[in-house]
Design goal:
Strand order of the largest sheet: 1-3-2
Helix content: 55-70%
Strand content: under 5%
Oligomer: single chain
Number of strands: 3
Shape: globular
Length: 634
């Protein structure tokens, strides 16, 4: 996902390719990095209120006409990318059984991936349920670890290794970090309910019945929160963020959700929904009061997960096993390189002003609030044409562009722009490019601060990251990948690294004809990710404070104090937001190694297509597939 504050990271549930946001979705996402059932993001203060009812109507109208450019695979159709070995058949049967067990255990995940058999259920967070999650992960990790690698083709062996890492990641968050004792936002049902209304995958009354069931079930999790959350382990900032989000959360259930079902007549089922919704609203108010009066005054946990957990997180989520000190040194070198290039580019644009002044001037010519969506929409066609004409990456010719819409309710405070793509089981291929607009209640100064993000140079950079050839093109490839392991389970460093790589690569390949204004915008966003890289490492392993992180973003990414603090706060709950730059650097290293091996035969578009065909698995495994062996990632 492309934004300042993407809702991705702390993967308390299975990491999936999409949103890698973060997010996966993939926001500056999509998530995304991604995670098992997505919870309401809780990384920053909620300064924006929820969208009004008109937004819900817009989405329902926009998704009324389904299109299909390719049919997604089914669990039974899951197949490896290439090769055949003695143990492949039994392994794929086991994989299909595993995926089915995951979809049943984590129903919100099934919904997001387009499997709607379990839309009337949620993932419980009671002690018994968490023990079940742990047992599930241990059982399947042991089963996959016991498979003989010598009996598998290379693609299946990579899948096996990746699944073992994924499952160990679940154990990291459930056993070692114990997120359920630390994160008040984990128990909020916003995402689980919203996923049922954002796409027209079933008749409205059927989806209303599912919402009713999930709202009733959500009461159990709100009760479990009071038992699970430990004052000694809950960071006070995590409580503060949820309390700031509370009015927006309540507004969603009080206003926007009923508006989505306004066209349904007053039947007994409609009354059941209204009763369940009213009960949930009261439970959310009670939870807010409990957090405010009982938990916040005594919350004293540390947001840092510690060096041991951080190392394990990198290995589990991205197959990266590099010493933390070495990673920090790499980040320092890259930051210095970007700073030099930023200063040189700013001087090329206007040598009379400082780099910060030049960057600020570029953001002043932006569209009005009502012009943002049509402006973003209009710009996509030319970028797509450039990708196709210059053979940057293959885009299915009959795949329509994503629909540009306003950012949905529970994400407005945590993203400037993001892609929302359907999962591989969804029969509609409809995707949304979401952009955040100012809250009507904001002051003129606040509105202008947000709209600077939509200057022409930033819109171009964001569209490359999110759509062409970034997240959306990767989604088009993942959606039709016959190997469901690679379609469902994704590495955040792969997905976010690919999108960030695309920002630089497209300008390198001639987009915008070498205009230094566009390069400066790209470099500013690269500096933001370079700061995230170092801040994530240092907040969680070296004691960096929120205040120190805020100052770091201000100094090194040319951010104003407000946005810098937002980024710092996100870092408290998103230890893995180094993934953007980490992934980009690994892709650049892979490209250089493939080019060296192929010599005169190297062709950039072919490299990109080969990379995307591998799915969003860790880059380590893509290196192995493309080069025939493992090697240094950086």
């Amino acid at each position: 996902m492309r934004d300042f504050v993407t809702p991705v990271a702390n993967p308390t549930r299975r990491r999936f390719v999409r949103k890698v946001a973060l997010g996966v979705a993939v926001g500056d996402a999509t998530e995304s990095e991604s995670s098992r059932p997505r919870r309401t993001p809780a990384y920053i203060l909620r300064y924006m209120r929820l969208l009004c009812r008109s937004w819900i109507l817009l989405v329902l109208v926009a998704i009324a006409g389904d299109f299909a450019y390719a049919q997604p695979p089914t669990v039974s159709e899951s197949a490896p990318l290439l090769g055949s070995a003695a143990g492949d058949g039994a392994f794929r049967t086991t994989v299909a059984e595993f995926i089915e067990s995951e979809l049943r255990m984590f129903p919100e995940t099934a919904t997001e991936q387009g499997d709607h058999r379990f839309d009337d259920r949620i993932t419980y967070q009671t002690q018994a349920a968490i023990a079940g999650h742990v047992g599930h992960a241990k059982e399947w990790k042991a089963r996959f670890a016991a498979v003989d690698p010598g009996q598998l083709s290379p693609a299946n062996e990579a899948d096996r290794e990746w699944l073992v890492l994924n499952l160990d990641g679940d154990l990291l968050w459930d056993e070692q970090v114990r997120s359920y004792e630390r994160e008040p936002s984990l128990y909020l049902p916003t995402a689980a309910v919203y996923s049922l209304i954002k796409r027209n995958f079933a008749p409205l009354d059927e989806r209303m019945r599912s919402v009713t069931a999930r709202e009733k079930a959500a009461l159990t999790n709100l009760g479990a929160a009071r038992e699970n959350l430990k004052p000694a382990r809950v960071p006070r900032v995590a409580v503060d963020i949820v309390l700031e989000e509370a009015p927006a959360t309540l507004s969603f259930f009080h206003d926007d959700l009923p508006a989505a079902f306004a066209s349904i007549s007053n039947t007994p089922e409609k009354q059941q929904f209204e009763n369940a919704n009213a009960a949930l609203i009261e439970a959310l108010k009670s939870y807010d009061q409990w957090l405010r009066t009982q938990l916040e005054p005594v919350a004293r946990g540390d947001y840092a997960i510690g060096a041991d957990a951080y190392r394990r997180m990198l290995k589990d989520s991205d197959a990266v096993d590099i010493p933390l000190a070495e990673l920090d040194s790499i980040g320092v070198v890259e930051m210095a390189r970007l700073q030099r290039e930023f200063r040189q580019t700013a001087q090329q644009i206007d040598p009379r002003h400082s780099p910060a002044e030049v960057e600020k001037a570029l953001t002043e010519g932006h569209p009005s609030s009502r012009e943002v969506i049509p402006t973003v929409t209009a710009g996509l066609a030319s970028i797509r044409k450039y990708v196709v004409d210059h053979r940057i990456a293959t885009i299915p010719p009959n795949a329509p562009p994503p629909t540009v819409i306003e950012t949905p309710p529970y994400m407005r405070a945590t993203t400037f722009a993001s892609m929302d793509t359907p999962g591989p089981f969804e029969r509609t291929g409809e995707a949304f490019f979401q952009v955040t607009l100012p809250d009507p209640s904001w002051s003129a100064e606040q509105e202008q601060q947000l709209l600077t993000f939509y200057s022409p140079v930033n819109i171009s950079d964001t569209s490359v990251h999110e759509v062409y050839p970034g997240h959306y093109v990767q989604f088009l490839n993942n959606r039709v990948n016959p190997d469901l392991v690679r379609a469902l389970y994704g590495s955040g460093a792969n997905a976010e690294g690919w999108a960030l790589y695309c920002e630089q690569m497209m300008l390198d390949e001639g987009l915008r004809n070498g205009d230094p204004r566009y390069r400066l915008a790209q470099l500013q966003m690269a500096l933001l990710r370079a700061c995230r890289y170092l801040v994530g490492l240092r907040m969680h392993t070296r004691g960096m404070t929120v205040e120190q992180a805020t100052a770091f973003f201000e100094k090194n990414a040319y951010m104003n104090p407000h946005n810098a603090r937002v980024e710092a706060l996100r870092g408290t709950g998103d230890p893995g937001y180094l993934r953007y730059q980490l992934g980009k650097l690994m892709i650049l290293k892979l490209r250089a190694d493939v080019k060296k091996k192929q010599g005169a035969r190297f062709e950039l578009g072919s490299f990109h297509d080969a990379f995307l065909r591998q799915g969003a698995i860790p880059i380590k495994f893509i290196r192995r597939a493309m080069l025939g062996k493992d090697g240094p990632l950086l």
